[in-house]
Design a protein that fits this description.
The complex is a heterodimer.
Chain A lengths: L8 H14 L7 H10 L7 E5 L9 E7 L6 E2 L4 E7 L2 E6 L4 E6 L6 E3 L3 E7 L26 E2 L2 E2 L4 H9 L18 H12 L53 H13 L4 E9 L1 H16 L7 H14 L5 E3 L6 E3 L5 E3 L1 E2 L4 E2 L2 E2 L7 H17 L4 H4 L4 E4 L19 E5 L3 E6 L5 E14 L5 H16 L2 H6 L2
Parallel strand pairs in A: 14-18, 18-19
Antiparallel strand pairs in A: 1-8, 2-4, 2-7, 3-6, 4-5, 6-8, 9-10, 11-21, 12-13, 14-17, 15-16, 19-21, 20-21
Helix pairs in contact in A: 7-8, 7-10
Chain B lengths: L1 E4 L6 H5 L13 E6 L4 H14 L6 E6 L4 E4 L5 H4 L2 H7 L2 E4 L7 E3 L3 E9 L5 H15 L5 E3 L5 E3 L3 E4 L1 E5 L3 E9 L4 H7 L7 E3 L12 H4 L5 H16 L4 E5 L10 H9 L1 H4 L6 E11 L2 E12 L2 E8 L7 H11 L6 H14 L4 H17 L1
Parallel strand pairs in B: 1-14, 2-3, 2-14, 4-5
Antiparallel strand pairs in B: 3-7, 4-6, 7-12, 8-9, 9-10, 11-12, 13-15, 15-16, 16-17
Helix pairs in contact in B: 2-9, 5-8, 11-12, 12-13
The chains are: A alpha+beta, B alpha+beta.
Chain lengths: 476, 372
């Protein structure tokens, strides 16, 4: 077993300066690099021109339609490189080599020729090529920095395959001691480092001796000769997690939500919640459901909630109003366009039922059916999504009891309905009975709505729903 | 003809463990399978599955399938250019992008699809099409059908009854083609006509052709008869038993990983996002009050998302702040009416509650959304 002495810093710096005069770091481009590697005295990765192979049927040219890789990406054998098309046939071209893509010979929509070079690939050294190919100046890869670490100003030497192995195992090259020539990190060094982390048993390798470099602050424990023969005690350290963070731009539905809710921040919200006994309404709906079905309409609880809200708004019209930008005027809206929050595959949308004040419960049910089927198909029009004056959110269909809904500007109030639960309650005689209980949580704009108004509206709405027959008296 | 359910195959359990191995290893050089599903995404997923997992060295496969109404575009095509997307949505016709090249086709139950799976080396489209023609002629000798050098099959020298496309991978390849038996020609011609004007793109364009159903030539023909005739000819040419094995594309144990493939084919990113970069340059003619406004709209769309957006409105027609908010919202958004509708209606919430402004905004947005 040989022990490698660590070269002093100066010699490494010397090698580095030799490169510096050959090419300037700032002007480094891939095509230039290719040339410089060939002309420099140091041995480098072998560039292979990967030619477009025969497609069959005597085809000589194809159109390049999509690249799956870009210059600088590392590829493995059989990875897809690009998609080309010829005469109704789409062909996936896969790599024959492991290595790094150095040059793409065509752009999208160019004609590529069979037998001519398609891409240039720098072949991986550790795959059995004689000369040791080091990449001192590793070009920026699509992965994070830790494939290319600096230890106090010196770049770590490692071949691309070794770098990939380190990256796949989430290892910082700066933490691995290289045992190769010039402090190069070899594959065995990575494996040894891993073995220490996970307590895995590895067969002893000739270069297993690791001597900590003098300049390191914390000493890596030197592996004595006999450790290779002893079974190491498993160290309970967490296994390296190979998951990666992902960043996506905010677009579409999410962007819409960001804009709406940011505007809603300006509204001082207050909340008011209550409990509604829907026992009678549940019974009523059971009776009416088959009648609605005969007419081809699905009847949920929402039409009742919406109609009751409209009746309440007739008494408390300020909840159906809008405050202008300067808080100078309150605009009372004549139409009760009640919005219904809808959860679709893409996200939250709030279509509204227009003019509830002149609709029957059945009319509302019909309209809700229409909006729901359009919403799930992603086909709601602008008219359905604009003009709302008041909103209800039936989050209870998914779950929950109390909520804190956010008002959708330019409205001034919103209600969130929890799920209907069967709970024990006392009746007027003091007996316990089974009640169908639902919670409602209102939010209102405290600039023009006060708690008392909200409470009275809620009580009126509650009374209509707890005693549905009373709705008959006030229906218009 | 013997239809044998796959569950009866005795050798299946021992073979399933090795996905790349010879799958339904019949002791012969070929296998004929038919899908029990009419869902275009499931059936396309079966093609992907066979292409990725089956070893076609020892046996080739013929896959027979039919779909409920769907428009299928080629790998590198532009759906906005190829079909009437609004009509598709209205009629609930599915849109799918296949992995093979070629042009756009309309599928319904009156159209049969045939996929010939071979190794990359044995990829030979002409042979397959000649097989189909031979089968048709064996069934009805008086049919005037022949294969063109564009890999179409023509009836009576002028009507296209079959179109072809192919996919080649590293070791395997497939060639699939359609065959019009009794499809709805009226729907076909209306959905395959795009109303889009001013679209510039390098996507593969379709070549429109005059079509005819085989049923029109000979009303005694049915899809089942055609499928059977083709299967019979394939069996003869591959020296195998003439029996068709039924497969269920939803069976995850039989085809491990198939549900992921099916899901991927339905994602927006695949169907619309794989469209090659294109630009639109058009003019909206908006009728406002008593005049007509000509509004030029220019957009660049990449990966199905709006990269650049320019709307040429008369000065001060909309408050500049609102206009820039509109352009900012549209940039990066999917070129999709649903998403754009959501964005523009949201912006309406945030601007001053002025009726005049609202009506102008609604007019502009409605016209823009109608574009897509």
């Amino acid at each position: 077993v040989c022990i490698h002495r660590v070269r002093s810093c100066s010699s490494i710096r010397f090698i580095k300066s030799k490169y510096v005069c050959v090419f300037d770091k700032s002007a480094l481009k891939f095509s230039h690099q290719q040339r410089l590697f060939r002309t420099s005295a140091v041995s480098c990765g072998q560039i292979v021109q990967f030619k477009l192979s025969d497609i069959g049927e005597g085809i000589t040219e194809v159109t390049v339609k999509e690249w799956y890789i870009k210059e600088g990406d590392s590829v493995s054998q059989f990875d897809s490189i690009c998609e080309v098309q010829s005469d109704k046939a789409s062909v996936t071209i896969t790599s024959r080599y492991d290595g790094i893509i150095r040059k793409l010979h065509y752009s999208i929509d160019d004609i590529a020729f069979v037998g001519k070079p398609l891409v240039d690939i720098e072949i991986d050294a550790s795959k059995g090529v004689a000369s040791e190919e080091d990449v001192v100046e590793t070009p920026p890869m699509s992965h994070e920095e830790h494939t290319h670490q600096e230890i106090k100003g010196h770049k770590t030497l490692a071949t691309p395959a070794v770098r990939r192995l380190a990256m796949e195992n989430n290892i910082k090259l700066s933490e691995v001691v290289g045992t190769g020539k010039d402090n190069r990190i070899l594959k065995e060094d990575i494996l040894n480092y891993l073995a220490k982390q996970t307590g895995a048993i590895l067969p002893p390798s000739p270069k297993a001796e690791i001597v900590p470099p003098q300049r390191r602050a914390e000493a890596v424990p030197a592996a004595p000769k006999d450790k290779a023969r002893k079974i190491p005690v498993p160290v309970s350290r967490p296994i390296a997690f190979a998951g990666k963070d992902k960043t996506e731009p905010v677009t579409g539905f999410q962007k819409a939500m960001v804009k709406t809710m940011s505007a809603a921040l300006k509204i001082p919200h207050f909340g008011y919640s209550d409990e509604i006994d829907l026992t009678q309404l549940v019974q009523l709906r059971e009776e009416l459901k088959p009648l609605a079905e005969i007419r081809g309409v699905k009847l949920s609880f929402m039409p009742f909630f919406i109609k009751a809200a409209s009746l309440g708004l007739l008494q408390y019209p300020i909840l159906n109003a809008s405050l202008d930008e300067n808080c100078q005027n309150v605009a009372y809206k004549a139409s009760h366009n009640i919005g219904v929050a809808m959860d679709t595959e893409q996200g939250l949308i709030v279509p509204n039922v227009k003019n509830v004040q002149v609709c029957s419960v059945f009319d509302i049910a019909v309209e809700l059916n229409r909006l729901q089927s359009l919403g799930s198909a992603g086909q709601l029009g602008t008219n359905d999504l604009t003009g709302g004056t008041f909103t209800l959110s039936n989050i209870g269909t998914i779950g929950g009891t109390y909520a804190k809904p956010v008002i959708l500007p330019p409205e001034v109030a919103i209600g969130a309905l929890g799920k209907i639960q069967v709970l024990p309650r006392f009746n007027s005689k003091g007996e316990v009975f089974k009640a169908q209980i639902m919670n409602v949580s209102w939010s209102a704009d405290h600039r023009i709505i006060d708690g008392a108004t909200m409470a009275r509206f809620s009580n009126l709405w509650k009374s209509y729903l707890e005693n549905p027959a009373s709705m008959l008296l006030d229906l218009k | 003809m013997v239809l044998q359910s796959l569950k009866n195959c005795l050798w299946l359990p021992c073979v399933l463990r090795t996905p790349k191995a010879c799958f339904w290893s019949t002791p012969s050089g070929g296998l004929i399978i038919q899908s029990v599903s009419n869902d275009v995404y499931q059936n396309l997923a079966v093609e992907d599955w066979i292409h990725d997992h089956m070893d076609l060295e020892k046996q080739q496969v013929l896959f027979l399938w039919r779909n409920s109404p769907a428009v299928v575009i080629g790998r590198h095509q532009n759906p906005w250019q190829e079909c009437n997307l609004r009509l598709l949505r209205q009629k609930n016709i599915k849109l799918a992008r296949r992995r093979s090249g070629g042009g756009t086709v309309y599928h319904d139950l009156g159209n049969i699809n045939l996929t010939f799976f071979t190794t990359r080396k044995k990829y030979e489209r002409m042979e397959n099409l000649k097989l189909v023609v031979k089968a048709l002629k064996a069934l009805r000798p008086q049919l005037d059908v022949h294969v063109t050098d564009r890999y179409d099959i023509l009836l009576d020298r002028q009507y296209k009854i079959s179109g072809t496309a192919a996919k080649l991978g590293r070791t395997s390849a497939y060639h699939h083609c359609t065959l019009l038996c009794n499809a709805d020609k009226f729907v076909l011609s209306s959905v395959l006509k795009s109303p889009f004007k001013g679209l510039k793109s390098n996507a593969t364009p379709s070549v429109p052709a005059l079509v005819k159903n085989l049923f029109e030539e000979d009303p005694s023909l049915t899809s089942e008869m055609l499928l059977d005739a083709i299967a019979k000819e394939y069996a003869v040419q591959h020296q195998i038993d003439h029996h068709i094995t039924l497969i269920n594309p939803a069976d995850e144990t039989l085809l491990p990983g198939i549900s992921d493939k099916t899901k991927e084919l339905q994602t927006w990113e695949w169907v619309y996002g794989k469209t090659p970069k294109f630009s639109i340059s058009t003019c909206l003619n908006m009728v406002y009050k008593d005049s007509v406004l000509d509004v030029k709209v220019n957009m660049d769309v990449k990966h199905g998302r709006i990269e650049v957006c320019n709307i040429d409105l008369p000065e001060q027609w909309l408050p500049p702040v609102l206009y820039s908010e509109l352009v900012k919202s549209l940039t990066g958004s999917k070129f999709c009416p649903n998403e754009i509708t959501t964005l523009v209606t949201t912006l309406l919430r945030l601007c001053p509650q002025d009726d005049e402004l609202h009506s102008r905004w609604s007019l502009l947005c409605e016209n823009m959304i109608r574009l897509i």
